[in-house]
């Protein structure tokens, strides 16, 4: 089977290499490896996935869509894109205008949250993402809510974002940290709770539980 990993150029890391070994292509790439089982893992190739005019955008995450047909790519400017790994063609792209929350779930700083059934979700704050290269406002607007939404992909690769649950926030900084979908074994009805642990910046914070975050399917 193939393994897909994102590669983002680091100016700091590049300075540790001799100048003649530094990459000339500094755009984000997707690297493909072949897991041959007993034969080991071997690298196959890399594909540039960042637009030519998208310097600084960066590929944040790559994940498999639930239907297994496409790869879902998340870029630093909030763009979600689907990529067909059979022909290496982009199928669709949408930009999420809101800031997105990050959680330590299947990876540190994840914004594409994997649900137990293989689906993907994002969590959008009720604050818009500032334009590229725009300075941070001296008095940023207060974030009072966040909306969890499904990122759904059709058989044609088209992306749809569907709201799932809106949460009011007293302290947005406390709503990031280690998180997990935990099966409700007490009621054993098929639902999952969302459990968010304390932020490492505020280890004294409380554990937050959203009961039946993913309700049982009929």
Describe the structure.
The structure is a single chain. By secondary structure, this protein is mainly β. The protein is 2% helix and 45% strand. The chain has one helix at residues 11-14, and strands spanning 2-7, 29-35, 41-48, 59-64, 71-75, 79-84, 89-95, 98-100, 103-104, 113-114, 120-128, 145-153, 159-168, 177-183, 192-196, 208-214. Strands 8, 10, 11, 12 and 13 form a 5-stranded antiparallel sheet that branches. A hairpin with a 6-residue loop joins β4 and β5 (71-75). The longest helix has 4 residues, at 11-14.
What amount of the residues lies in strands?
A: over 45%
Radius of gyration: 19 Å
Helix fraction bin: under 10%
Number of strands: 16
Terminal-residue CA separation: 33 Å
Low-confidence parts: none
Mean pLDDT reading = 84
Biggest sheet record: 5 strands, antiparallel
| Tally of contiguous helical segments | 1
Indicate the overall shape: globular
Order of helices and strands: EHEEEEEEEEEEEEEEE
Secondary-structure-based class equals mainly beta
Concise overview:
The protein is mainly β. It has one helix and 16 strands.
Descriptive labels:
5-stranded antiparallel β-sheet, 218 residues, 1 helix, globular, single chain, 2% helix, 4-stranded antiparallel β-sheet, mainly beta
Chain-wise SSE layout:
Elements lengths: L1 E6 L3 H4 L14 E7 L5 E8 L10 E6 L6 E5 L3 E6 L4 E7 L2 E3 L2 E2 L8 E2 L5 E9 L16 E9 L5 E10 L8 E7 L8 E5 L11 E7 L4
Parallel strand pairs: 9-14
Antiparallel strand pairs: 1-2, 2-3, 4-5, 5-6, 6-7, 8-11, 10-11, 11-12, 12-13, 14-15, 15-16
């Amino acid at each position: 089977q193939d393994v897909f990993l994102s590669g983002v150029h680091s100016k700091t890391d590049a300075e540790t290499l001799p100048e003649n070994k530094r990459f000339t292509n500094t755009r984000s790439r997707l690297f493909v490896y072949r897991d041959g089982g007993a034969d080991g893992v071997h690298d196959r190739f890399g594909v540039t996935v960042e637009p030519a005019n998208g310097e600084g955008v960066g590929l944040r995450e790559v994940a498999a869509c639930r239907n297994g047909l496409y790869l879902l790519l998340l870029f630093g400017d909030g763009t979600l894109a689907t990529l067909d790994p059979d022909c290496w063609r982009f199928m669709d792209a949408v930009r999420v205008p809101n800031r997105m929350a990050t959680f330590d779930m299947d990876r540190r700083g994840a914004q594409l949250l994997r649900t137990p059934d293989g689906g993907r979700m994002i969590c959008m704050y009720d604050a818009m993402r500032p334009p590229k290269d725009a300075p941070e406002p001296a008095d940023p607007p207060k974030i009072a809510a966040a909306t969890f939404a499904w990122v759904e992909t059709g058989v044609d690769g088209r992306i749809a974002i569907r709201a799932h649950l809106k949460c009011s926030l007293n302290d947005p900084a406390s709503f990031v940290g280690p998180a997990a979908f935990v099966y409700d074994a007490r009621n054993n009805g098929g639902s999952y709770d969302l459990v968010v642990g304390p932020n490492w910046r505020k280890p004294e914070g409380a554990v937050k539980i959203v009961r039946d975050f993913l309700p049982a399917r009929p």
